[in-house]
Amino acid sequence: MKNKYALVLYHGILQCLTMLTATSLIGILAGVSLPVTLFTTGLGCIVFTLVTKGKTPIGVGLSGSWLGTMIAMSAFGPDHVIGTTILGGIFYVLLALLIRWKPQVLKIFTPLILNLAVMFIALNLIGIGVGLVMEAPLTGIATIIGIALFNQFKHTKQVAFPLGIVAGTIVHAFMFGLGSTGSTTFIPQFIMPAFNLTTLSASLIFFALATEALGDSKLAADVTGNKYEPHKVIMGNGIASIIAGLFGGMSVTTYSESCAYVRATKYAHPLAIIVAGLLFIAMSFIPPVNYVISLIPKPALAGMLLYLFSLVAASKIGEIKIKDDNDMLVVILGLSAFFLAPSLLPNISQIAVAMIVMVIVYIILQLIHKIKK
Fold it and tell me: In angstroms, how far apart are the furthest CA atoms of the chain?
């Protein structure tokens, strides 16, 4: 029995460390207080595990896919960030109910549309990463080179991203020095969320992120042998996001890093995610932990973002398979919507616009095909 709990604790700690770098990165870049990020990530892990009844044993955290939207909303104030988070959570819940009622709705998320959605997310974040790296180019470049070098050696491959960030931070310290900003411990506070046309349009990006959650959970189900229950996964994301918003945080979603950990270790006890969640919550109340993390300069974190999503974009380009003229039309209109949206619909996420256009085109083409029959 002791060995069992020791194993749960061990993997819980590693799950926490696996998600820590990325979820902290997204929160810092989006302007969310680090203690709030850690607290809501931990709470999200626990809530998601309870909602899915432990059958999808992966953690949740702040997704980079929300980053561009939340940076835009932060310009309007924290009330808009919270409003967007809560509305996004509500949309998740509504989608979960729809999937539960009509499971066939998932057929609109074809492999082509899913791969394009992930590629659009990556392209959007590459642009954000470039902009942030340019604040201190040598810091970002040092981070990217560090990750690439550490990724070449067997003993450092698994920790290449944290070590790359350390390399970038050291370079930044020599050039500019280091400084910590923001609160160093979690302090609950209520901010009235803004619910308006701006937050409503921004929250539509949930549509693209739902595909990320479905993909991660399907991979986890394949590894664990548990029944794949997409409606519970989306519901877990939704409820966790609403609660995160109530505590002043960003929307959370299933974490690819956590899913990758489960796939690599084959260890899938849900209590490990609960342990990881409790560790995140504990860290949010420990000033030294928050202080050390907050010393990391944004350009170093942005370098990691740039490296990671350049890999994602490159891999997804290779996975996009165009089988016929209909697929070609979906790709052309999706790309057009993605690149034209910032000019034509500046208040709505270009990723969400592209996703909606692709799904509508796919549905219309399917209807035309049925009529011809």
Answer: 69
Q: Which residues pair with 61 in a beta bridge?
A: 253
Give the Cα separation of 89 and 83 in Å (integer): 10
The answer to pTM > 0.85 is no
Among candidates 371, 333, 323, which has minimal Cα distance to 353?
Answer: 333
**Spatial separation of the C-alpha atoms in residues 314 and 91, rounded to whole Å:** 30
Is pLDDT at 1 greater than 50 in this prediction?
no
**66 three-state secondary structure:** helix
pLDDT tens digits for 119-165?
887 888 788 788 888 989 999 999 999 999 998 988 888 778 888 98
Instruction: Assess contact for 256 and 21: CB atoms under 8 A.
Output: no
Shortest CA distance to 311 belongs to which of 104, 126, 182?
126
| Chain CA centroid to CA 313, Å | 15
What's the token pair of residue 194?
């803004």
Q: What is the C-alpha separation between 265 and 210, in angstroms, rounded?
A: 25
Q: What is the pLDDT of residue 182?
A: 59
Nearest-angstrom CA–CA distance, 11 and 153: 23
Token readout for 79 is 């009330």
Q: What's the rounded mean pLDDT across residues 107-115?
A: 83
DSSP of 210-243, one letter per residue?
HHHHHHHHHHHHHHH-----HHHHHHHHHHHHHH
Q: How many residues does the chain have?
A: 373
pLDDT digits (tens, 9 = 90+) for 216-250: 777 777 777 788 888 999 999 999 999 999 998 88
